[in-house]
From TrEMBL, chain A:
Residues 428-558 form the RAE1/2 domain. One of its GO terms (biological process) is intracellular protein transport. Pfam families: RAE1_2_domI_C. It comes from the Eukaryota. Residues 105-116, 134-143 have a biased composition (Polar residues). Residues 96-188, 587-631 are annotated as: Disordered. Its main location: cytoplasm. It is found in: Cytoplasm, Cytosol. GO terms for molecular function: GDP-dissociation inhibitor activity; GTPase activator activity. Substrate-binding subunit (component A) of the Rab geranylgeranyltransferase (GGTase) complex. Binds unprenylated Rab proteins and presents the substrate peptide to the catalytic component B. The component A is thought to be regenerated by transferring its prenylated Rab back to the donor membrane. This is Rab proteins geranylgeranyltransferase component A.
From TrEMBL, chain B:
It comes from Cyprinus carpio carpio. Belongs to the protein prenyltransferase subunit alpha family. The lineage of its organism: Eukaryota, Metazoa, Chordata, Craniata, Vertebrata. It catalyses: geranylgeranyl diphosphate + L-cysteinyl-[protein] = S-geranylgeranyl-L-cysteinyl-[protein] + diphosphate. This is Geranylgeranyl transferase type-2 subunit alpha. The keyword Transferase applies.
């Protein structure tokens, strides 16, 4: 697995001279941190649905034979069950674009009452989708592989009635694509069809994990410190928005925002600035908050006589904490936000061009530069544990090779339930939308917006939304890629669809436009949406597994906005493996590296000379793994 | 493989790297020096060829601040221009612009580059101003305070006829992204009077901007100083908004001296002053009341001998001030020895030199905003100061007590500037006293025991005959004191006056009392005092000692 944590550990180990072999059962980098082109994502969805546990038993015999006396085998899970409840709906017109153009005038003839009905209708239609796709969903759940075969059934219907079935499978799309004539050269700018999305699919970089980088967060610090930042480019998040009283509003957070804000009175401006200035060094003024240390931050804000407006902004959009968060934590969160302002722009956040999936890849790259070896579609069957020392001494890969190692770093999803002491993990609900315009159009249509959505009902989770513009290189021009994330209280769709229907226009019929004058018309239209749950194992630690001490389990992405958790975990695992080494010291400039020997190998830093198999044998490593070389 | 012993990458040591860097530097220096020598040699040989461009190019790209090389380049370009067709010239200069751009990346604040760029645009047959504006915008987005670029931008805007409106929007944008930017606010202050001038300006109500826009600008300033009351830029802009144009506040003419005195609301230069007597422009020499004052609120001139001395003639004078497109008339009637035309101190206009008179409800609202801010920020000096100014604009006498209290707070919260505040407070007290005097219609000015630290508005005391400044903290009688052309009696006991420079040429002075001051008694000062009073017909100076000095003149 090449999740962020594993990639950072691998890079850090490789950087200080450890041999690293990095294996992944997938055919792409970054694991659950990956980003995909639109077409890549469609394949990923298919893979997810087809995931099966078939050949395991047969293979078992192969590796059993490689275990010596005095050794135990600890099998790993071949199945990744970290993703669940995946559902996809398409609302873009699936008609060919020529027809589309002709259809446009028709929409203006829609009955006036359509606008009042539309919301209800949406709800109904969503349910309808549910039932149709229900099989897909359960079938794709890894634990019920037998139902998988039914997946194809609804597709056949689709061929006969495109319009009534918004959900589409990859094959079907492909078949449509191949059968359809080339797109007409002149396109109607505002209408984006499904075919267009597929055709422009390479312009998308759709992350499975949606996070931003605090400009003074652990990730940015590490990128700078290690010089890994040279492998990526970043864009500032342009604005922070919030959903409040049924409207999307800009949150004034920087000095310039406060100055320019039209929603705040001048007195509110002063109060806000004064409060924020206080937060910057609140530790210096304990008298201001000491009576509230045991009380919620929300109470403290009230006590400070901040207006409703300001309380909302600070609580939900600046501190980004819940109603129950205690005062000191709220102050710390606010302080962190403020300290990150102005380093790179008027908001505290950066986002990597081409998506967050770039970041693990950057670390993989550094790992490779210092000799790390990467194998995709190559997994580990089992660990070989020495009975006496109770340490992993080798692993056996899916090809039946035994590879010795001194440390084994692995992602949580590879661990079987038998090795777990605790399965107390949570879930993250995710939705990915492709929309046709911004939730808050402004002068510049090329801004990345972070949108905080407080719980719609008191029991619902707060939702975090990131709207990416095409200049972030994550979606095609004319569209926005919107990520919604919250900690799950149910299935992703249950958690997030209500929010989506508040903020976006979800049509009942693919390609349909909201009727003239409707409120819906001012909302961005959803062209395509994917829901899924991702397991959040961040609450687990080494005591949650019964594994040898030189096996280091990396938990997956957490539900927070930033990646600090994963970076800190990487650092702590690294220090566990190599207590005396520096974590990611700056990589030298290429011109400062001395190449020994005059041989041509000097050219390629690293791994050109060793083939995978060779490496597997001579170097002892594993899955996102590292080992000390014997002297 | 970069993996060495223990699998670690071998990296050059710091010493190694530094040695390499040093060698590199040395090499560069050598190349630079030899190229420079070659260029200078070529220049003295008068060679104006492509090679010269090439060589200077190399040098300037590493050091764009080498002014001589830019000069040489201009010589070469001017020469090449004569040899080429028009479209070739265009190309030549366009490539020059590209080159300058590269140099600006090396040093965005290079005087030489920006100057050369301005020059190139004047030579370019078809300058592309849009591109130049774009360049400025890019530069300013990288450094919004690069004044070189601001200057250049003004040149471009002027040459390309960008509308004032667009420019105002440009300042909107810059102020929006960071309002702590004097350049933007200042630029705005130059644009507003053009775009939204005060309708029908006259000499009595010359605000800078029409009221409707003014209100919008007030709001903008509020936004800035409520967001960050410690940022000065918006406060300065606000003060400018509240202020008003300089104007002629008084014209005084006396038959006896055949002299005209003109007073202004602020110290001004005499340039652009013109005197018209009975329809005839007069060639006159303007002088300030003291030779040291080049910037003075009062200017004097002598009329040609005999031009107004006949009491039986009536005369009409007009002072034109071309710089501000304003003028002031004064009539000298038959039988009158003197005449003046002025804003009366009791007229609401006077002393609003800091703040202009809006409809008082508007100013009242501004005062409320500021008081609101003061409640939130009781220690904010900018807010306190602005409140004082607003109070003065609204009702200086009515607010006198509050004003003094605010001054006290100001001195406490900003002790570094306590002297400034004392001076300012003195100024306001003097203004108030002048107002009271005017209401009482007397020519006696009494301001004792008020902690005055400075004297000002002496131009307003043009007609005062008696002045009492005792028991203050005055250090000197400043040169402006010479404006008290009618002064007969001066009392200034119990101060800390050290020099008497201001007692220069006061034609009517009869009695001076300077007990308990710190006047340094030296030959020089005696001499000075004698000189001062040399114009007085008969003098009797008595100074038993400077602890107790009284001068009786006449």
């Amino acid at each position: 697995m090449h999740g962020l944590t594993e990639s950072v550990i691998a890079a850090a180990c490789s950087r200080v001279g450890q041999s690293v072999l990095h294996l992944d059962r997938r055919n792409y980098y970054a694991g659950n941190w990956a980003s995909f082109t639109f077409n890549g994502l469609l394949s990923w969805i298919e893979q997810y649905k087809n995931q099966q546990e078939v050949q395991i038993t047969e293979l078992e015999q192969v590796w059993r034979s490689l275990i010596d006396e005095g050794e135990d085998a600890v099998p790993l899970s071949a199945l990744d069950s970290s993703i669940s409840n995946l559902e996809v709906f398409c609302y873009a017109s699936e008609e060919e674009e020529k027809e589309e153009e002709m259809k446009t005038p028709l929409s203006s003839f829609q009955p006036v009452n359509a606008e009042t009905v539309s919301e209800e209708a949406n709800g109904d239609s969503t349910e309808a989708h549910d039932t149709v796709t229900g099989d897909d969903t359960t079938a794709s759940d890894a634990k019920t592989p037998n139902e998988e075969h039914e997946v194809s059934e609804p597709k056949e219907d689709q061929h006969t009635s495109d319009i009534s079935e918004p959900s589409q499978s990859q094959e079907e799309k492909e078949s449509q694509l191949s059968s359809s004539p080339a797109d007409p050269p002149v396109e109607v700018q505002k209408k984006i069809t499904y075919q267009k999305l597929v055709k422009e699919g390479r312009r998308f970089n759709i992350d499975l994990v949606s996070k931003l980088m605090y400009s003074r967060g652990a990730l940015v610090d590490l990128l700078i410190k290690s010089n890994v930042s040279r492998y990526a480019e970043f864009k500032n998040i342009g604005r922070i928005l919030t959903y409040r009283n049924g409207k999307v509003e800009q949150v004034p957070c920087s000095r310039a925002d406060v100055f320019a804000s039209k929603q705040l009175t001048v007195v509110e401006k002063r109060m806000l600035m004064k409060f924020l200035t206080f937060c910057l060094d609140f530790e210096q003024h304990p008298e201001e908050y000491q009576d509230y240390t045991e009380k919620p931050f929300r109470e403290f804000l009230k006590n400070k006589k901040l207006t409703e407006n300001l309380q909302h902004f600070i609580l939900h959009s600046i501190a980004m904490v819940t109603q129950h968060t205690l005062t000191e934590e709220g102050l710390k969160a606010t302080q962190h936000f403020l300290r990150c302002l102005g380093r790179y722009g008027n908001t505290p956040f950066l986002f990597p061009l081409y998506g967050l999936g770039e970041i693990p890849q950057c670390f993989c790259r550094m790992c490779a530069v210092f000799g790390g070896i990467y194998c995709l579609r190559h997994s580990v069957e089992c660990l070989v544990v020495d009975k006496v020392s109770n340490k992993v001494k080798a692993v056996i890969d899916t090809r039946g090779q035994r590879i010795s190692c001194s440390h084994f770093v692995v992602e949580d999803s590879y661990i079987r339930d038998e090795q777990r002491q605790s399965t107390a993990y949570r879930q993250i609900s995710r939705a990915v939308l492709i929309t046709d315009r911004s939730v808050l159009p402004s002068e510049s249509d090329q801004q990345i917006s972070m949108v905080t959505i407080p719980p719609l009902e008191s029991s619902a989770p707060a939702v975090r939304m990131v709207e990416l513009c095409s200049s972030s290189m994550t979606c095609m021009p004319g569209t926005y890629l919107v990520h919604l994330t919250c900690s799950s209280s149910g299935k992703a769709q249950e958690d997030l669809a209500p929010v989506i229907s508040q903020l976006f226009h979800v049509s009942t019929i693919p390609g349909e436009e909201p009727s003239e004058g409707a409120e819906e018309r001012s909302k961005p239209a959803v062209l395509w949406v994917m829901y899924f749950n991702m397991r959040d194992t961040s609450a687990l630690d080494s005591s949650s597994y019964s594994l040898p001490s030189n096996v280091h389990v990396c938990t997956g992405p957490d539900d927070s906005l930033c990646s600090d958790y994963s970076i800190k975990l990487a650092e702590s695992v690294f220090h566990h493996i190599l207590p005396d080494e520096e974590f990611c010291p700056p990589a030298p400039n290429p011109e400062d590296i001395i190449y020994d020997g005059d041989g041509p190998q000097a050219e390629g830093p690293g791994f050109d000379e060793s083939t995978n198999t060779e490496a597997d044998k001579s170097l002892a490593e594993e899955e996102g793994a590292t080992h000390e070389k014997s002297p | 493989m970069p993996l060495g012993w223990h699998g670690r990458v071998k990296i050059k040591s710091t010493a190694q790297q530094e040695e390499e860097k040093r060698k590199e530097k040395e090499k560069k220096l050598k190349a630079f020096v030899s190229a420079r020598d070659a260029v200078l040699k070529k220049r003295s040989a008068g060679e104006h060829d492509e090679e010269a461009l090439q060589l200077t190019r190399q040098l300037l790209s590493s050091n764009p601040d080498f002014a001589t090389l830019w000069n040489y380049r201009r010589e070469v370009l001017l020469h090449l221009e004569t040899l080429r067709e028009k479209d070739e010239v265009q190309k030549l200069y366009e490539s020059e612009l590209h080159f300058i751009e590269a140099c600006l990346k090396v040093n965005p604040k290079s005087y030489g580059c920006w100057h050369h760029r301005t020059w190139v645009n004047t030579r370019l047959p078809q300058p592309d101003w849009t591109r130049e504006l774009g360049l400025c915008d890019r530069c300013l987005s990288l450094d919004e305070r690069n004044f070189h670029c601001w200057d250049y931008r003004r040149v471009v805007v002027k040459a390309s006829g960008v509308s004032v409106e667009q420019e105002l929007q440009f300042t909107d944008r810059l102020i929006g992204s960071n309002f702590s930017n004097y350049s933007s606010w200042h630029y705005r202050s130059t644009l507003l009077p053009q775009l939204h001038p005060q309708p029908a300006p006259d000499s009595f109500h010359s605000h800078r901007v029409c009221e409707e826009q003014l209100l919008k600008e007030y709001e903008l300033s509020h936004n800035a100083f409520f967001t960050d009351p410690n940022d000065q830029s918006a406060w300065f802009y606000y003060r400018w908004l509240l202020g008003r144009e300089e104007m002629i506040s008084c014209v005084y003419v006396s038959r006896e001296g055949e002299r005209v005195s003109v007073a202004f609301s602020k110290p001004v230069h005499s340039e652009g002053l013109m005197l018209v007597l009975d329809g005839q422009p007069q060639q006159v020499e303007w002088r300030s009341t003291h030779p040291r004052l080049r910037h003075s609120p009062v200017w004097l001139c002598d009329l040609p001998p005999g031009s107004i001395s006949d009491m039986s003639n009536e005369h009409n004078l007009t002072i034109h001030w071309t710089e501000k497109h304003t003028h002031r008339d004064c009539a000298l009637y038959t039988g009158c020895a003197e005449s003046w035309c002025r804003d009366s101190a009791t007229n609401l206009e006077l002393f609003r030199s800091e703040l202009s008179v809006e409809k008082s409800s508007v100013l009242q609202a501004e005062l409320q905003s500021c008081n609101q801010l003061l409640e939130l920020e009781p220690q904010n000096k900018w807010c306190l100061l602005t409140i004082i100014l607003l109070m003065r604009a609204l009702d200086p006498l009515g607010h006198e007590k509050e004003t003094l209290a605010h001054f006290q707070t100001l001195k406490e919260v900003d002790p570094m500037r306590s002297t400034y505040y004392s001076d300012l407070c003195s100024k306001f007290l003097i203004e108030n006293t002048i107002l009271k005097m005017e209401y009482a219609e007397v020519r006696v000015f009494s301001l004792s025991n008020k902690n005055l630290t400075t004297l000002c508005h002496l131009d307003q005391l043009l007609f005062v005959t008696h002045i009492n400044l005792s028991s203050n903290q005055l250090l000197r009688l400043p040169p402006h004191f010479a404006m008290l052309q009618c002064l007969e009696v001066l009392e200034a006991d119990d101060n800390a006056i050290e020099n008497l420079e201001g007692l220069y040429h006061l034609p009517k002075l009869e009695e001076v009392s300077l007990r308990n001051n710190r006047i340094l008694f030296s030959k020089k000062s005696k001499c000075f005092i004698r000189n001062c009073f040399s114009g007085v017909k008969s003098q009797c100076l008595v100074w038993p000692c400077f602890k107790d000095s009284v001068f009786f003149i006449n």
